[in-house]
Amino acid sequence: MRAVLARRQPDLTVLMDRVNKSHNFSAILRNCDAAGVLGVHVVLPEQGLDLHRGTSAGTKKWVDVRRHEDIDGALAHLKSAGLHLVAAHPSSHAIDFREYDFTRPTALIMGAELHGVSLPALEAADTRVVVPMMGMVHSLNVSVATALLLYEAMRQREAAGMYDAVRMDDETFRERLFEWAYPTIARGRRKAGRPYPALDENGTILRD
After folding, report:
1. Does domain 2-159 have CATH number 3.40.1280.10?
2. How do residues 23-47 score in pLDDT, each as one tens digit?
3. Which residues contact 43 (CB under 8 A, 6 or more apart)?
4. 108 close to 86: Cβ distance less than 8 angstroms
5. Are β-strands 12-17 and 106-111 bridged in parallel, bridged antiparallel, or unpaired?
């Protein structure tokens, strides 16, 4: 757990803009875990969405999911965190996703397959990227597209040595490690408004 958490990228995230199929939602979470994403952001469709446990393979435990009431609130939050907003959207203004510098703090905005990224998100985006297509279809499945973008981000960040050292502060690291190791106790502590107890080097809870 320590080794995986040490490779997490707190300045690389995905905003799911009303992704409306549970298997896509779950698959995107799985992609994020594989690429070392610490947490994702979600604006749910109006009808809601249930997590597809079979596809996610338990990754909701390892990837933080923050829900936002609307897209404007989600965008404002990401902007205030200093993230560059990158919308995956085919347009004349979009660049090949491999040309974007993923070593900069980045929030990828992925939309539902039918409608794509919403207009407010497109207008707020700092950059639009596209996955080149050589066939008759115009787009990929949203979870597949997300995987391509994240793995390009991972390739660039690996080359820059960004997975070689812990990229979060000590307190955040300790909190995440406790939540991963003891999720039930962590939930109880949060509900009671109590801090997490310390862990020793073997991950054993110390008395508090």
Report:
1. yes
2. 899 999 999 999 999 999 999 887 6
3. 15, 16, 17, 18, 67, 68, 69, 70, 71, 74
4. yes
5. parallel
